Every structure is written in C-alpha cells, then in structure tokens.
Amino acid sequence: MYYDLTKGPITKNLILFSLPMIAGDLLQQFYNIADTLIVSRFIGSHALAAVGSAYALMTFLTSIFIGLAMGVSSLLSIDLGKQEEERLKSTIVHSFFLIMSITIILTILVYLGINPILHFLQIPQSLLYGTQTYLLIIFSGMIAVALYNFITCILRAVGNSLTPLYFLGVSALINIILDLVFIIVFHMGIGGAALATVIAQYISAIGITLYFCKHCQAYMPRKRHCHYDSQILSEITKYSLFTCLQQSCMNFGILLIQRLVDSFGAITMAGFAAAVKIDTFAYLPVQDFGNAFSTFIAQNFGAHHKKRLRSGIKIATCVSALFSLILSLLVFIFAKPLMMLFVKAHEIQVISSGVRYLRIEGAFYVGIGCLFLLYGLYRSIDKPQMSLVLTIISLGLRVVLAYAFAPIWGEVGIWVSIPIGWFIADTFGYFYYLRHRATLLP
Fold first, then answer.
1. Which residue of 32, 77, 282, 424 pairs with 298 in a disulfide if CB–CB is 3.0 to 4.6 A?
2. In whole angstroms, what separates CA 162 from the centre of its chain?
3. How far apart are CA 142 and CA 24, in angstroms?
C-alpha cells in the first residue's frame, strides 16, 4: 500500500505508515535476537559477550551506508512532493552507484584492518578468537545489508512501507532455522550463527530488489536516466553526507561505550550484550515512527504545506512521548524476566548487570523518542547538519560522562550518562526549532 502523506488526517496516516516499518524492523531484530538467544543457550556467556562486541562494531559500520540511504530517502520524498518523477529516477541511479561503491570499499578496508580493530576494542584474550571468527563471516553480508536498505528507503520515500515487511518476515524465519541447524545439528559454534545471519541478509536483499524491478516500474530508472549529473550528485551528497556522518557519529559513540564496557570484563560484557538487544527491540517503534515522520516532513516540505508541517510536528511529538512512556514502564517492570530469556538463570551476575542497565537507561525512552523526531525533522527540511549537531551533543556528552562516571560508580556511571545526553540534545533541538521556525518552514 502506498501513502500520500501530503493529504488526509495526519495522526492516522502517520501511524498507519509507520506500523509496517515498526513490524519490519522488529523482524529485522530477530536476526540479532536469534543469534543472542541461541548462542547464549547453546554455546555460553563467553560466546554471547563475543557476539555483543561484534554487534556494536557491525552496527557502526553499517550505519555509514544506512545513513547514506536515509539521506537519499529524504531527497526522493521531496522530489515526489514536487512531482518531479524524472529527477527522482536519476537520483535513484546516482545514489545506487554511490552507496554500493562506498560499501565495497568499506568491506575491503575492514577485512584488511580486522586485527587493529579488535585491538582498539580491547577484546579480552579469552574472547578474541570467537569475536574474530564471527566478524570475518558477518562482514561478508555488508553488501546485502546496503542493498536491502537502499531499496527499502526508495519504497518508503514513495509511500510504501509494507513491502519490506514481507521479505524480512521470510528472512527472519530462515535466520532462526539456520541458527538452530548450524549450531545444534552441525556444531558450527559462533561461526554458524554468523553464517545464518549472512544467508538471511542476502535472501532479503535479493528478494526486495527483484520485487522493485518487477512491480515498481513507475519509479524504475531507464537508460536516459543513467548519465552523470553533477547537480544531482551534489544534492545527494548534501543530504546524505550529514545523515551518514550523523549515523556514523552516533554509532561510533556507541562503539566507544562498548570499548569502556569491555574493560569491565566478561560479566558486564555479557549483561550489556543481552540488555542492548532488549533495549534496541524496545525503542524500535519510536525510532521507526521518527523515520515515518521524516517521510511525512519531506513530502510536505516539497509540496510547501507549511500549516500541515507545523501541525504534524506537534502531533508527532505527543504520540512519540506517550508511546515512549508506555515502553519505559514495561521495560522497567519486566527487566529481569526479559534478561532471563537470554541468560541462564544461574548466571546471576550477568542478569543483575543487564537489569541495572535496563532500569536506568530504559526509564527514559521519551528522550530518545523525541531525538529521533528531531533527526527526521532536520534531515527533511534541508537542514541535515542539525541532525549531526544533535548527535554530537547527545553522543559526545554520553561518552564524556561515561568515561568520567565509570571510575566513580562503575558500570552504573555508564548507564546514567545515556539519558543525560538524550535530554540535553532534545532541549537544544526543540529550542532551535522554536526560535527559527519562521525560516525553517517558509
């Protein structure tokens, strides 16, 4: 189903457009959830810690081309709002070659630099082999992740958020089945978990690409669109560069936090690895609502619907805040049972570490919910540099405070720093919008 977000009731359309995105990303998390559950249950907490460290690194690397795709999505939505379909098709061609070229270069670089990367992360010697094995296999799926996210961003930009859900559903199921087969039947260990994820990633990427080529002829580029246009490439760079930097800075900050967590040893690493999976799963709905909001803003910005833009910002903030509070309450109450899904009951210290994280950081999801809205807003009104500024404020403060508090309060100092960074960035983002609203939404 395709949604024209320049028309109709704002609240209803935003929610309906975001629901498939939420369901799709929840399914995508099954890639990581399946690895975490099966690895922790059938291999052990050391393997769980290794997967956790690898996950932080992989998230940072994939954020680069995901950020590029998100920037392209905003530009495509603006073209659609302006009804410039020929320009939209040329933008698709240019952005495809840009994103895939960067992904290939990045893949080569990480393979060449695997040992320095592991050294930087301060991986304990006991976890070094498992982490390296997992990463060497999981890196081979980067091209698939880039292709899937590129096609998904095109579909979402033109108002189709439902189709990616189907492909993720199939690939998530395949991931879980292959995890069980490779680890339990063939005893392939942590490498089997990585291989299952990579196979599932390629299935979803190839499937959604074939769908786009067959069923989206209205947006399919033709030969006449395959020529170099410096102006289009410049606009793609303008929108994508800051979004890419914003995503990369955000995940580099998380990587630095992971490095600090690793210094506390295997127990904290394992607790953090499981808790982050729960955490990511919990706030995915508000993250995807922010991405849906970004498409809404971009389409209406392109169509010059000033009044609708202002109303949408107010409505989206209220909806996101309410939903975030509900999520926080659920995570706070069920923190221990959720941790015990990933960690065996006798590993009390690991469970306690994860519960502390969830009850401190998870109580303030309203902060990250509003921050996702601000990212989407500024990315879609030709101010992507503001998203980068907000990320630097949020993550910069988080890293600085975590490294300052950790020697005093231990791991609790790391967890406390996270919501502080969110709320200070939110305050700055909304203050800037209110002060410059007349010029931001002309």
1. 77
2. 18
3. 19
Q: Provide the CB-side half-sphere exposure for 312 (13 A, CA).
A: 32
In whole angstroms, give the CA distance from residue 435 to residue 94. Answer: 36
Tell me 160's DSSP state.
B
How far is it, in rounded angstroms, from Cα 379 to Cα 185? 47
d(CA 440, CA 427): 17
- Residue 83, SS3? coil
Domain housing 373: 10-440
> What is the C-alpha separation between 29 and 175, in angstroms, rounded?
11
Q: Is residue 4 part of a domain?
A: no
Class of residue 36 by CB neighbours under 10 A (exposed 0-12, middle 13-18, buried 19+): buried
Q: Which residue, 365, 24, 13, 323, is CA-closest to 163?
A: 24
Are residues 64 and 247 in contact, defined by beta-carbon separation less than 8 angstroms?
yes
Q: Does residue 354 belong to any structural domain of this protein?
A: yes
Handedness of CA 71, 29, 11, 151 (dihedral sign): positive
- Asked if 320 and 15 count as a contact pair (C-beta separation under 8 A), the reply is no
- Ranges of residues in the chain with a pLDDT under 70 are 1-3, 28-36, 45, 56, 251, 442
Global pTM reads 0.72
Cα three-residue angle 344-168-343, rounded to 5 degrees: 5
Tell me the two tokens of residue 246: 């914003």
**How far apart are the C-alpha atoms of 325 and 30, rounded to whole Å?**
24
Q: What is the DSSP letter of 364?
A: G
Distance between CA 403 and CA 259 in Å, rounded? 10
Show Cβ contacts of residue 190 under 8 Å, excluding neighbours closer than 6 positions. Answer: 39, 43, 47, 50, 51, 130, 133, 134
Q: Residue 8 — left, alpha, or beta (φ > 0 → left; ψ -120 to 50 → alpha)?
A: left
pLDDT of the residue at 182? 93
Quote the number of domains for the chain. Answer: 1
Distance of CA 79 to the CA centre of its chain: 24
CA 374 to CA 371: how far, in whole Å?
Answer: 5
pLDDT in tens, 353-387: 889 999 998 889 999 999 999 988 998 887 878 88
Report pLDDT for 2.
Answer: 62
Residues forming a β-bridge with 2 = 160
> Is 223 part of any domain?
yes
| Residue 293 lies inside a defined structural domain of this protein | yes
The DSSP-derived string for 24-38 is HHHHHHHHHHHHHHH
Residue 185 gets which letter from DSSP?
A: I
SS (H, E, C) 214-244: HHCHHHCCCHHHCCCCHHHHHHHHHHHHHHH
pLDDT tens digits, 212-221: 999 888 888 8
